[in-house]
């Protein structure tokens, strides 16, 4: 048990903070956005969902509207259920809404506040964004096209050898790509030690940043409780995850510097940044910028590709239509190339639909307001946490008719070729990559990874429902694993080559990777 005096003083402190916040917000002439009625002291803690928040917030929206707020122990959380509100605040007033929340457990104790995703806005934030923007610009990612193409082909070839491990193959191909782009590191086998370590590190991220999972996030003073103290298990967990994170970040950076010194380094994001570095004091920021791109790019692209496989398992007609388009453009004697992309409007629309149908981050990453603001007659206090419900925005029936249906056609005009301009969205036609100054800096790389994997899979493989022992199709679950980065729960499906010619092309591709 924790020391009762400690708990009493923490609760006492929280009560004073709560009273102060109540007092200062009641002084404001404008109301907070509406929301469920809070209780004294704890606010809406008892109503705040532990998982599937996006569904709960969608329901709340029917009563309270598109801009809602709840109170968690004195902290205001604003929930945005419309694209317009998210764009008005997070894009157009990004000078106010680009902070990240302070997370004692995942951020400070484990160390994720060194990475771009959790770093506070300031010089270090700007520097890291500049590094990543420069290294992963639309132009820069074209350099990785050959590797993207080869990896996508090798991945499809592996799907034919052990189709039951299709999720592992998706993971391997995304990790191989990220590690090669960021560190020039070649992944040459299943269960590569760096890939395994990175997965443990990312599991630590999900667990340590899970809202409500650790008391220290509610009472930050607990971070001073020593690890040996009874009940301080969170400190031991934090130490374990921190050690994993630091060992991954340091070992990759040491490896790359050694290779550069020996002249054996393959050009990559980190080596290019080190080449252009004007002062060795920049090294630490480059190290964490690289780690940010590595950790930001792995699970997200895996989730999107898993969603593609799930959508194909469930929607054979869409799969056949996309395959027919690819056959007409690419033919049967070769595999898709990036140059084919402009002639594949339906495949491009299918990619957009993957990101709309089941967005990777249902609630975006949280933003925080830097100062008091007023929007649509509501007061948004300084320090509010802003959750943009991407899931609801991507399923808005006034913009996307029959939103739960997987239908790429929604992104094309009646001619089946011209992309439709969707109001209040960007070129990828949904909100999958977030907002404002925190917009995902890896979107060009993600877009190319997804395109090449989707096009190669459609060209060579058929994905369908697996059959049970009686020959009856097994209906896959469309449930997603809860978490900041969500992904489909594992399911079984059948994967086979579309033709012997396709199997031969893949076999050859695997031999030459
Ligand atoms: C399908 C793939 C991806 C999706 C759906 C995705 C989505 C997102 C979203 C929603 C955010 C939060 C934006 C916000 O707070 O408003 C984000 C941030 C970020 N993403 Fe991605 N991402 C993907 C791939 C990548 C890749 C490939 C990389 C790098 C190689 C990357 C690196 C990052 C980083 C570093 C951040 C933090 C940015 C910041 O806080 O300033 N992401 N991503």
From TrEMBL:
Pfam families: p450. This is Cytochrome P450. Keywords: Heme, Iron, Metal-binding, Monooxygenase, Oxidoreductase. InterPro entries: Cyt_P450, Cyt_P450_CS, Cyt_P450_E_grp-I, Cyt_P450_sf, Cytochrome_P450_fung. It comes from the Eukaryota. PANTHER family: P450, PUTATIVE (EUROFUNG)-RELATED, P450, PUTATIVE (EUROFUNG)-RELATED-RELATED. PROSITE patterns: CYTOCHROME_P450. Its cofactor is heme. Heme binds at residue 440. Coiled coil: none annotated. The keyword Oxidoreductase applies. GO terms for molecular function: heme binding; iron ion binding; monooxygenase activity; oxidoreductase activity, acting on paired donors, with incorporation or reduction of molecular oxygen. It comes from Botryobasidium botryosum (strain FD-172 SS1). Pathway: Secondary metabolite biosynthesis. Belongs to the cytochrome P450 family.
């Amino acid at each position: 048990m924790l020391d009762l005096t400690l708990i009493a003083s923490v609760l006492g402190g929280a009560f004073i903070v709560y009273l102060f916040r109540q007092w200062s917000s009641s002084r404001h002439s404008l109301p907070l956005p509406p929301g469920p009625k809070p209780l004294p002291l704890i606010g809406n803690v008892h109503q705040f969902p532990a998982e599937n928040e996006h569904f709960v917030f969608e329901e709340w929206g029917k009563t309270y509207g598109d801009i809602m707020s709840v109170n968690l122990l004195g902290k205001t959380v604003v929930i945005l259920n419309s694209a317009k509100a998210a764009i008005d605040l997070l894009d157009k007033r990004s000078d106010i809404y680009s902070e990240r929340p302070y997370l004692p457990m995942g951020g400070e104790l484990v160390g994720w506040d060194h990475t771009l995703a959790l770093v506070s806005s300031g010089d270090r934030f700007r520097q890291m964004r500049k590094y990543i923007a420069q290294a992963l610009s639309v132009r820069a990612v074209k350099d990785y096209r050959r590797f993207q193409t080869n990896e996508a082909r090798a991945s499809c070839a592996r799907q034919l050898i052990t189709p039951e491990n299709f999720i592992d193959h998706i993971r391997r191909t995304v990790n191989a790509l990220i590690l090669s782009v960021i560190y020039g590191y070649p992944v040459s086998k299943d269960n590569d030690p760096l890939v395994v370590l990175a997965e443990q590190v990312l599991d630590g991220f999900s667990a340590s940043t899970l809202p409500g999972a650790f008391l220290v996030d509610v009472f930050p003073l607990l971070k001073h409780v020593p690890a040996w103290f009874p009940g301080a298990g969170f400190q031991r967990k934090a130490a374990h995850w921190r050690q994993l994170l630091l060992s991954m970040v340091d070992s990759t950076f040491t490896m790359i510097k050694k290779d550069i010194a020996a002249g054996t380094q393959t050009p990559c994001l980190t080596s290019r940044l080190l080449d252009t570095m004007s002062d060795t004091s920049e090294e630490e920021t480059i190290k964490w910028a690289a780690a940010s791109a590595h950790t930001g790019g792995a699970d997200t692209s895996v989730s999107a590709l898993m969603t593609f496989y799930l959508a194909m398992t469930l929607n054979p007609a869409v799969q056949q239509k996309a395959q027919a388009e690819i056959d007409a453009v690419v033919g049967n004697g070769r595999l898709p190339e990036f140059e084919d992309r402009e002639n594949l409007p339906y495949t491009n629309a299918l990619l957009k639909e993957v990101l709309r149908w089941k967005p990777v981050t249902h609630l975006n990453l949280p933003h925080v307001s830097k100062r008091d603001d007023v929007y649509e007659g509501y007061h948004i206090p300084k320090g509010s946490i802003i959750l943009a419900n991407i899931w609801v925005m991507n399923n808005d029936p006034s913009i996307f008719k029959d939103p739960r249906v997987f239908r790429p056609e929604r992104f094309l005009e009646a001619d089946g070729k011209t992309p439709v301009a969707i109001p209040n969205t960007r070129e990828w036609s949904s909100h999958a990559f977030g907002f404002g100054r925190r917009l995902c800096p890896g979107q060009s790389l993600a877009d190319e990874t997804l395109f090449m994997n989707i096009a190669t899979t459609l060209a060579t493989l058929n994905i369908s429902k697996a059959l049970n022992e009686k020959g009856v199709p097994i209906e896959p679950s469309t449930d997603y694993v809860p978490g900041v980065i969500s992904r489909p729960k594992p399911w079984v499906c059948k994967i086979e080559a579309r033709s012997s010619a396709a199997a031969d092309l893949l076999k050859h591709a695997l031999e030459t990777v």
